[in-house]
Design goal:
The structure is a single chain. With 631 residues, this protein is of the alpha/beta class. It folds into three domains: 20-339, ABC transporter transmembrane region fold (Up-down Bundle), CATH 1.20.1560.10; 351-387, no CATH class; 392-630, Rossmann fold (3-Layer(aba) Sandwich), CATH 3.40.50. The protein contains 19 helices and 16 strands. The strands form four sheets. The protein has a six-stranded mixed β-sheet, with helices on both faces. Strands 2-1-3-4 form a four-stranded antiparallel β-sheet. It has a four-stranded antiparallel β-sheet with strand order 6-5-8-9, covered by helices on one side. A hairpin with a 2-residue loop joins strand 8 (446-451) and strand 9. Helix 5 (136-178) runs antiparallel to helix 9, helix 6 runs antiparallel to helix 8 (238-290) and helix 16 (531-545) runs parallel beside helix 17 (561-575).
Length: 631
């Protein structure tokens, strides 16, 4: 057996949070209240039919079968009628059972759909920090494993719970009617059974919660290794990756083993205790009758024994649902953890509006135009307008991702409208961090960033990002056609606008050569295209949005030299009349920048034009000449 890891866990690890069950009930209320009421009614009828059938055995034996045994010429008409009545009772129970199971399937699937929708909608509001600190596999585990365990609990355990409680109550009332002493004996035995169930269930729940936690970790690691298989193969990392996976898998196995050890032992124990109870009831009932403590007929004894099974059976089914309930609540807990994450703060009041193109004054219009303006609310309830020019100014910005280690130290720079600013420096120097702050993927802690004289914190994030185009080193293409992927930046774009953007990015030629052209389907992040072609589509997508400010984050680093020339031409077209921030490892792509910013450990150590920086023979000179040596 694997040993459970002794690594320290969070204080609340392995515990269900308070209010989890209450929140689940909240999803059922209102929308599904009527269905739940009908489900409960049908369950009660079904359970009542089951108890009534057991109780009817007394009538069947004492009033029909036993008298017929004493008659020389028995007439079976009454017996047949009684059997028909009994069959009708069970038939009603079967029909009600079918109805509540069918209805509960609608409820459980509906709740599952609602939670999944809410979870996905919430995920769209989360800041980038959440995805930087949680593995994609663990996030996906919420939509698969956690939702599935929740569905199991709602679809099966709820009905079993209601049916079991109803059956237990009904059987208890019926047993009291037959024999109070025997019923008291059953209650004493029941208390013994419940003490065992409580002990096992407590341990089962704890370890099933841990199982769900570690399942998310394993999924996260598998997702990372799957997406990085080329790197694994290139560096012969298979052995180490298997070793790390085995460590995680062993920890998961340890928790699963412990959880299922308690869970699987519960049913055999309960079944055997149920059989012992059945035998003891027969012995005790016989002794009470022989000693005159209670007088029971044959029918009453048979009926009581059957009711014992009817009474104990639900307890066993409840015990069987402990695992499902534990996993379902653990899954719900993880789902609600995601839903309780703090959403991205978007308190900016300044919005982006279209203004009339040919007007000398700034006049807002609802029609889509080539001119934009910032609509700034005033204290008196009016608005002022600032035309979008693309003037970016960063003032004394200091920033840390974790609140401990500063990534940027007192950085100040500006980019006038239409200027091209390049960031160069070693990996980790802070280049991408600056662009993340401009986009407000993270907010500035010290200092400020101004866009056309307006603090970006005052600008609505949606409108801010609408005015910023971005081309990343890692291309992200989605399942759909080439046309649909380009239209991500402007969903209402016409085909002509899509083609124009593709021509700007020099992507039109290769798209036209594809069998289905712009209707070519892309899957698996555009695996049917080359890396260069994927990057061209990414540039075309940015071009379609036609933003005044463009950020190119090492957009040509993964493209071959021949393709780079094609892309560079498209990028030059893209950068005309725009403010552009370029991050590049290939320093040949930043020679024509208005200003080159050299960063080192989050500080600006050099700035200036290409020729001036070369003449200084400082850090930029070393980087530039070193780059040429490598080429």
């Amino acid at each position: 057996m694997a040993k459970v890891s002794s690594k320290p866990m969070p204080k609340n690890f392995g515990k269900i949070k308070k209010g989890t069950l209450k929140r689940l009930v909240g999803y059922v209320k209102g929308k599904y209240t009527l269905k739940i009421i009908l489900v409960i009614i049908f369950i009660m009828i079904s359970a009542g039919a089951n108890v009534a059938g057991s109780l009817f055995l007394k009538v069947l034996i004492d009033d029909y079968i036993e008298p017929l045994l004493l008659e020389p010429n028995p007439v079976f008409t009454g017996l047949l009628r009684a059997i028909g009545t009994m069959a009708l009772i069970y038939l009603v129970g079967i029909v009600c059972s079918y109805l509540y199971n069918r209805m509960m399937a609608l409820v459980s699937q509906g709740v599952q759909r609602d939670i999944r929708n809410e979870m996905f909608n919430k995920m769209q509001t989360l800041p980038l920090k959440y995805f930087d600190t949680n593995t994609h596999g663990d996030v996906m585990s919420h939509y698969t494993n956690d939702i599935d365990t929740l569905r199991e609990m709602l679809g099966r355990s709820f009905t079993q719970l209601v049916q079991s409680v109803t059956t237990i109550v009904g059987a208890f009332v019926a047993m009291v009617r037959i024999s109070v002493p025997l019923t008291l004996f059953i209650i004493l035995f029941l208390m013994f059974m419940l003490s065992i169930t409580k002990f096992i269930a407590k341990n089962t729940t704890k370890y099933f919660i841990k199982q769900q936690e570690y399942l998310g970790k394993v999924n996260g690691y598998v997702e990372e290794m799957t997406s990085g298989q080329k790197v694994v193969k290139v560096f012969n990392y298979e052995g180490e990756s298997k070793k790390k996976f085995n460590e995680l898998n062993e920890e998961l196995f340890g928790h699963m083993y412990t959880a299922n050890k308690f869970g699987n032992v519960l049913m055999p124990i309960m079944n055997n205790l149920g059989n012992v109870e059945y035998v003891l009831v027969a012995i005790v009932g016989g002794m009470l009758t022989l000693n005159g403590v209670t007088i029971l007929t044959v029918g009453e004894i048979v009926s009581f024994l059957q009711l014992t099974k009817t009474f104990s059976g639900p307890l066993m089914r409840l015990a069987q649902q402990v695992n499902t309930i534990a996993m379902g609540l653990a899954g719900a807990d993880r789902i609600f953890e995601l839903m309780d994450e703090e959403p991205e703060v978007n308190d900016g009041k300044v919005t982006l509006v279209n203004i009339e193109e040919n007007s000398k004054e700034i006049k807002e219009t609802k029609e889509r135009t080539e001119r934009w303006a910032w609509k700034v609310p005033q204290d008196d309830g009016t608005f002022s307008y600032v035309e979008v020019k693309g003037f970016i100014e960063i003032k004394n910005v200091t920033f840390s991702y974790d609140g401990e280690k500063d990534v940027l130290h007192d950085v100040s720079l500006y980019a006038k409208p239409g200027q091209k600013i390049a960031f160069v420096g070693a990996t980790g120097a802070g280049k991408t961090t600056i662009t993340n702050l401009i986009n407000r993927f993270y907010d500035v802690e010290q200092g400020e960033i101004l866009y056309d004289g307006i603090n970006v914190k005052d600008i609505n994030k949606y409108d801010l990002r609408l005015s910023l185009g971005m081309v990343l080193q890692d291309t992200n293409l989605f399942t759909g056609t080439i046309k649909e992927n380009i239209k991500y930046s402007k969903q209402d774009a016409t085909d002509e606008e899509v083609i124009k953007a593709a021509k700007i990015a020099n992507a039109h030629d290769f798209i036209s050569l594809l069998p289905d052209g712009y209707d070519t389907m892309l899957t698996n992040n555009g695996a049917n295209l080359s890396q260069g072609q994927r990057q061209l589509l990414s540039i075309a997508r940015a071009a379609l949005g036609d933003p005044p400010v463009m950020i190119l984050d090492e957009a040509t680093s993964s493209i071959d030299t021949r393709t780079e020339k094609i892309v560079q031409e498209g990028m030059d077209n893209l950068m005309k009349n725009r403010t552009v921030f370029v991050i590049a490892h290939r320093l040949s792509t930043v020679r024509n920048a208005k200003a080159i910013i050299v960063l080192e450990h989050g500080k600006i150590i050099e700035r200036g034009e290409h020729e001036a920086l070369l003449a200084e023979k400082g850090e930029y000179y070393q980087l530039y000449t070193g780059a040429f040596e490598l080429e």
